[in-house]
Design brief:
Helix 6 crosses helix 8. It is globular, with a radius of gyration of 31 Å. The chain is built from 13 helices and 52 strands. The relative contact order is 0.08. Strands 2-3-4-5-20-17-16-13 form an 8-stranded antiparallel sheet. It has an 8-stranded parallel sheet with strand order 33-32-30-27-23-22-21-34. A 6-stranded antiparallel sheet has the order 1-11-12-19-18-14, with no helix packed on it. It has 822 residues and is of the alpha+beta class. The longest helix is centred in the first third of the chain and has 41 residues. The structure holds ligand MIG.
């Protein structure tokens, strides 16, 4: 029976084996299920959990929760930095923030909740779960995490959910389409080249993750300092149950800013991220651009036309065709055989030349910028070390890694080619960065100033770092003059290097009105020097749209007309005689306003207060200023209210905020706090001066190299308030103002006491003006006395002066007393 035995033996062994295999199989299945579950568990959002420990030292608070690390550090009594990550926090690095934390000693209490307070800002953190809330000195709640959702993690992504006040409004985020108040909307930040974008497009060219929340008569700011793709949702698609913002990766660092007003918050925000340095005076003039003026002779003709036709202009642009085969830092020998001679000739006519520069560097052995770049290892690479190649204007290109010091130095050195050729304006384009196909791979590596990273983190700062390289390079190459740098793409803080324009807009009324909102939002977000292509870049405006747009843009900081290749001519004379006459008038008005505007630019450089002020800055609690139709209105400087109107409307409903307002063109007075129907013909955009304020003008000049007459004109609009205007002058071009070579003085209009006081000037600069012409509007005033150093020096009684008087512009403290005749 050996066989049978054998058989049994086999059967038993097989059975045992089968059993073992089945068991192994089961174990594997169970393990796989568990693993699957675990994987699933990882695939859901995870809350931040409870506070496990909280310690405070050196003004900072460190918290560990179940799933995260949190650090709160005060930068000033009103600004606190909050950092959150699911990994231990690393050393903080930022391209945006330039301020160092000040010495602040917050009070720390660790009880049932954690308190971490200064005199101005109170932080309270509940422990189970972790939720943070911010209150002001009066214990009024400003902002708090959403109770249910709080802070959520998904892999590397971090989302913060905040409670919404029922009436809360949101402004900021820089260059975004849509309304001024962003409540109920959602936005993404990922710098994007969007040719002829729509009025709903998002994202566009710039990333400025800063917004201001306004509710219950109070406001606060939140700046998210994270350059990965970020999202801001102000209650969209969630029935307004909460707002939330997120970053795709990296640490979630946000700054919470407390302030009594929007202006104060902007001041604090620009203290953190820096301000626009005062630009050259000429960059406030009218600028003429198109894609493209060439050859040199064509530009001479355009320039000559401006002068012959007596239309003021300061800057002419060269778009890409001035280059040799679109190679940056070269000149086309056929179109511009001697660029230095060309800029000199234009210079003699009172023009500065600005040129476009693109980041893509042509891969060409006979191109020194390229070979030098290869030698210095400045270009972007894949992780393997292979160079990235993408196609743009010159064909195959390598792209500089501007987050690397050597690259910035290399770029800066080549800027000298431009400054040596007499170029004074540097127009940074295509720096989202953009390449044909619009999808540069995220896998590319960046130095990120020693914090090696990928395109995912560096993409949004690319444009900003390009402008930094340009700005620093030009300053080095041409140290005595302030450069004018302009950019399409940038990041928060980029205002330190560059002015901005809103890219490839379209010739339509909607775009014209939207540009007014975009410039307001950019101003709220730290970019005081902003503008849009007048007339619309893509397509052709008719003469009404062109004229209307020009009349609005004359009150915006960056005043440039530009248009797409193959569009119709768009110089001020190109649309017929009638348009030319109105355009001349509009541009003349701008030039007469230069002393007023330059003072506003100076203020922006000192406090961040934008030149174009959204009405929410001064009238935060007036719901009408956010209303559809009225939200396009803005203040230009502190005194002028500008009301954009559609091109085909010859009258408009405008809203005047509280106070009294004078229409500048007629001096008619209007009551504020309500809407008015006013005439709005193409040659008379509704612009109002605020009662109690002043407007300062000079005589007409054709360009800023020309001196105005030596009389400064001040128009006082009668009211019943006191207002101070900080008047500022300097040479308009050099850095001497840093050595106190400026002329700055407060001019106080006290309509109650009926006096106009010129306080002592500061600085060593001698004013261009020897005389003052003071004009009173709205109050038929008779000037009585001129009092200098407390002594009455002139008694005007006999040679009166109704409404207007001329007097020497004395450097001593002096005041004019007047008497109202009505
Ligand atoms: O691929 O240089 O937004 O102002 O005229 C288009 C040509 C590149 C885009 C800019 C526009 C400029 C144009 N540029």
């Amino acid at each position: 029976m050996p066989n049978l035995n054998r058989f049994c033996e086999y059967a038993i062994i097989s059975y045992v084996w089968a059993f073992i295999l089945v068991m192994i199989n089961r174990v594997i299945i169970i393990v796989m299920c568990l693993a699957g579950l675990a994987a699933r568990a990882q695939n859901i959002y995870k809350g931040i959990g409870n506070v496990k420990s909280a310690t405070s030292k050196a003004g900072a608070l460190d918290i560990v929760t179940d799933h995260a690390f949190v650090k709160c550090a005060y930068y000033s009594p009103n600004i606190v930095q909050v950092r959150i990550s699911n990994k231990p926090l690393e050393k903080y690095f930022s391209y945006a923030v330039v301020a160092n934390p000040r010495q602040v000693e917050p009070r720390f209490v660790d009880g049932t909740s954690i308190q971490f307070n200064t005199d101005s800002l109170k932080i309270s953190i509940s422990k189970a779960p972790f939720r943070i809330s911010f209150a002001n000195r009066n214990d009024e709640l400003l902002n708090e995490d959403d109770t249910e959702l709080g802070i959520q993690f998904w892999n590397d992504e971090i989302t913060i959910f905040k409670k919404l006040f029922p009436t809360e409004r949101f402004v900021g985020l820089g260059e975004k389409t849509g309304p001024i108040d962003k409540r109920g909307l959602s936005f993404t930040n990922w710098n994007t080249d969007d040719f002829a974008y729509t009025t709903e497009a998002d994202p566009l060219y710039k990333t400025i993750p800063f917004y201001i929340g306004i509710a219950n008569g109070k406001c606060y700011g939140i700046f998210v300092d994270n350059s990965y793709r970020t999202n801001f949702n102000f209650g969209a698609s969630t029935n307004h149950q909460y707002m939330h913002f997120s970053c795709e990766s990296g640490e979630m660092t946000y700054y919470f800013i407390n302030g009594n007003s929007i202006a104060e918050i902007i001041e604090y925000y620009t203290d953190l991220t820096g301000r626009m340095p005062i630009p050259p005076l000429w960059s406030l003039g009218y600028q003429q651009c198109r894609w493209s003026y060439y050859p040199d002779k064509e530009v001479y003709t355009v320039a000559k036309n401006f002068r012959d036709k007596q239309i003021p202009c300061d800057v002419i642009y060269n778009d890409i065709d001035y280059m040799d085969r679109y190679r940056v830092f070269t000149f086309s020998e056929t179109k511009f055989p001697d660029f230095k001679k060309y800029t000199d000739s234009l210079g003699k006519m009172g023009f500065r030349v600005a040129v476009i520069i693109d980041p893509g560097i042509s891969v060409a052995k006979d191109y020194n910028v390229y070979s030098d770049g290869i030698k210095q290892n400045v270009f972007l690479k894949y992780p393997s070390g292979k160079l990235y190649t993408g196609d743009v204007w010159p064909g195959a290109c390598h792209f500089p890694d501007f987050t690397k010091a050597t690259t910035r130095g290399w770029w800066g050195t080549h800027c000298k080619t431009l400054t040596d050729a007499g170029i004074r304006g540097f127009w940074n384009d295509m720096n989202e960065p953009a390449a044909w196909g619009q999808s540069i791979p995220n896998i590319l590596m960046f130095d990120y100033d020693g914090h090696r990273t990928t395109m995912k983190q560096a993409h949004n700062v690319y444009g900003m770092q390009m402008t930094r390289s340009t700005y620093d390079g030009v300053r080095k190459a041409h140290p005595d003059e302030r450069p004018f740098v302009l950019t399409r793409a940038t990041f928060a803080g980029g205002q330190r290097y560059s002015a901005v324009w809103t890219g490839d807009n379209d010739a339509s009324d909607d775009h014209m009105l939207m540009s007014a909102r975009m410039i307001q939002s950019l101003g709220i977000s730290g970019f005081a020097f902003a503008g849009a292509d007048i007339g619309g870049f893509a397509n052709d405006p008719d003469k009404d749209l062109y004229t209307r747009w020009l009349s609005i843009a004359a009150y915006t900081p960056f005043f440039r007309c530009h248009s797409m290749i193959n569009t119709r001519d768009r110089e001020p004379w190109a649309l017929g005689e009638e348009t030319e006459a109105i355009a001349r008038n509009i541009i003349n008005k701008r030039y007469r306003l230069l002393p007023y505007l330059y003072s506003a630019f100076h203020k922006a450089s000192q406090t961040g207060m934008p030149v174009v002020r959204s009405l929410c800055l001064d009238y935060m609690n007036d719901g009408n200023v956010y209303g559809y139709g009225y939200e396009n209105q803005f203040l230009c400087g502190q005194s002028l209210l500008v009301c954009p109107v559609r091109s085909k409307d010859s009258y408009a409903s405008i809203y005047l905020p509280a106070g009294k307002w004078y229409r500048v063109s007629t001096n008619n007075v209007y009551e504020g706090g309500k809407a008015h129907l006013v005439d709005a013909p193409l040659n008379d955009l509704p612009v109002f001066a605020k009662a109690g304020e002043m407007i300062i003008r000079q005589s007409l000049i054709q360009h800023t190299m020309q001196q105005p007459s030596d009389t400064l004109e001040i128009t006082i609009y009668g009211g019943d308030s006191i207002s101070t205007f900080e008047y500022y002058e300097d040479d308009g071009i050099s850095y001497n103002y840093l050595d106190k070579e400026f002329y700055k003085r407060n001019i106080v209009t006290d309509c109650r006491k009926r006096e106009l006081v010129f306080q002592q000037p500061e600085g060593t600069f001698v004013s261009k003006f020897n005389y003052l012409k003071v004009e009173f509007i709205g109050t038929l005033a008779e000037v009585l006395n001129l009092v200098e150093d407390g002594k009455r020096i002139t008694y005007y009684d006999d040679k009166v002066v109704k409404g207007v008087c001329v007097l020497p512009f004395s450097n001593k403290l002096f005041k004019l007393e007047w008497r109202n005749l009505e």
